[in-house]
Design a protein that fits this description.
single chain, 476 residues, mainly alpha
């Protein structure tokens, strides 16, 4: 086992040299964050290609009149549910792994990683079985009509086959990033995205498989990505290795992983619930056209939010490592840098979208009615986009430092306490019911984002400053 005392000399063997190279308590904090964040941003953007490319091709599928795209949109809540459980164990275990590594507890870090892998594996089969059994009533509950159900059912039947590969590949990829190998983690999504990009047009148009081809291409990409991740984590280059002796669940570790991962789980699970509520209300007040528009808006939101997620999530290994090493001033520097860069980006992205909405909409659909109605929907739905940064920043700090209660609370607060009630109430209170549905998101961004960031500032950022002063006193 490596400890900090192992690095007191000047000569290192190869394993120690790699460990020292990824020591986030030394050097520029902003540089460490960007070294983590840039590959992670690229990786997350590429990750979108698993589903985004499908939507682009299906949105332009001849003869579907936008119904095929709406059908895929109906599957989004189920995909969000799978993502939620992936985050529960992947994003729950990875920060704990970073903290343990920062404290020099290598064996503990590997146990956390092994337990997370086991939880991901068995949960994936449970979700897949449940979704197959309940798919018809669930899809109709999500807003499917007799016209859109066949498309949604076809895509979902095939997509579910890749559940175990998706959860293992994406969940365990967090542990590659937490060890300080963001480029390898980026390679995971790059590989999958390339496979998807190549197979999609071949299967959808070349073999005339349509929506079936899109689903098959996605599953193939997920399988290859999972193999890439597992090979690295069991290979020689990994600092922390996936070992079979650590696959056996230890309940204290399971408790800690799920406690910290619950915040990420809730964020995705409540996205699932919010999407269900939106689709249900849109099916009443807007019909298939506006469900399709919401599918497009969700796709645009995913694209534009990726750099923000990249910078905030990329900071987590650095913040967590320094927290384990008790380098409190470096954590404060990291928070300031992360927030400033995120603010600059969100303002620029929001301005670009408001000024040029049609090119974004046209990327996903060729349906004129959907594009024309979508312009106004863009302006409403993204009105509070800038405030989304505050939610991501505060949430990432809580997660990185292992503060699960705060992370869980603010995940619930924005979606459950704000979005869901507004989604149901606003269309009934406003003359323009559809506008009310789209306004629920920006209102929640403003209220939830400000509350989350302010709490993080007063309960974490300022207290870390006090902790730094106490450290100086003790040292003196």
């Amino acid at each position: 086992m490596l400890t900090w005392s192992d690095f007191s000399g000047k000569n290192f063997d190869s394993e120690e040299a790699v460990f020292l190279e990824h020591d986030f308590s030394k050097g520029s904090v902003s540089r460490h964050i960007m070294m983590q964040a840039v590959p992670l941003m690229i990786a997350q953007i590429l990750q979108l290609l698993y589903n985004i490319v499908d939507r682009i091709y299906i949105g332009h599928l001849p003869g579907s009149d936008g119904l095929a795209l709406t059908g895929i949109g109906l599957v989004f809540p189920i995909v969000s549910l799978i993502n939620a459980f992936t985050n529960l164990y992947g994003m729950g275990g990875a920060p704990l792994c970073s903290i343990a590594r920062g404290a020099g507890k290598t064996e503990q870090a590997e146990k956390i990683m092994g337990n997370s892998a086991t939880l991901l594996f068995f949960t994936s089969f449970a979700i897949m079985a449940l979704c197959y059994v309940l798919k018809r009533p669930v899809l109709y509950m999500l807003g499917a009509s007799d016209a859109t159900y066949p498309y949604a059912n076809t895509y979902l039947m095939i997509y579910l086959l890749g559940t175990v590969f998706f959860m293992l590949g994406n969940g365990m990829n967090n542990f590659i990033t937490s060890q300080g190998f963001p480029r390898i983690a980026m390679g995971t999504t790059l590989l999958g995205a390339l496979i998807n990009l190549i197979l999609d047009p071949i299967l959808i148009f070349g073999f005339g498989m349509g929506i079936e081809g899109a689903a098959i291409a996605t599953v193939a990409a997920q399988i290859i990505s999972a193999v890439w991740v597992l090979r690295f984590l069991t290979g020689k280059k990994a600092i922390l290795k996936l070992k079979k002796e650590y696959f056996r669940l230890e309940w204290p570790l399971v408790r800690d992983i799920t406690a910290l991962g619950t915040a990420g789980f809730i964020m995705q699970a409540t996205n699932c619930v919010a999407q269900i509520a939106c689709n249900a209300m849109l099916s009443i007040y807007g019909g298939d056209l506006y469900i399709g528009i919401m599918t497009v808006l969700n796709s645009i939101r995913e694209i534009l939010s990726m750099p923000v997620m990249g910078i905030t999530q990329g900071s987590q290994p650095v913040l967590g490592f320094n927290y384990g090493a008790r380098q409190y001033n470096r954590i404060r520097k990291g928070i300031r840098f992360m927030s400033a860069v995120g603010a600059l980006y969100t303002v620029a992205a929001w301005g670009l979208l408001v000024l040029f909405p049609k090119p974004f909409l046209s990327l996903f659909t060729g349906n004129r009615a959907m594009i024309e109605a979508g312009v106004r929907s863009v302006h409403l739905y993204f009105a509070g986009f800038v405030f989304m940064l505050f939610q991501f920043s505060g949430q990432s700090v809580f997660t990185a430092l292992g503060k699960s209660k705060q992370a869980i609370f603010f995940s619930l607060f924005r979606k459950v306490v704000i979005v869901l009630p507004l989604t149901v109430l606003l269309p009934r209170l406003m003359t323009d019911s559809v506008a009310g549905i789209f306004l629920a998101e920006p209102i929640s961004n403003v209220i939830g984002g400000v509350a989350c960031f302010a709490t993080m500032y007063f309960t974490v950022y300022r207290r870390l400053g006090i902790g730094r002063q106490q450290q100086r006193t003790e040292t003196a």
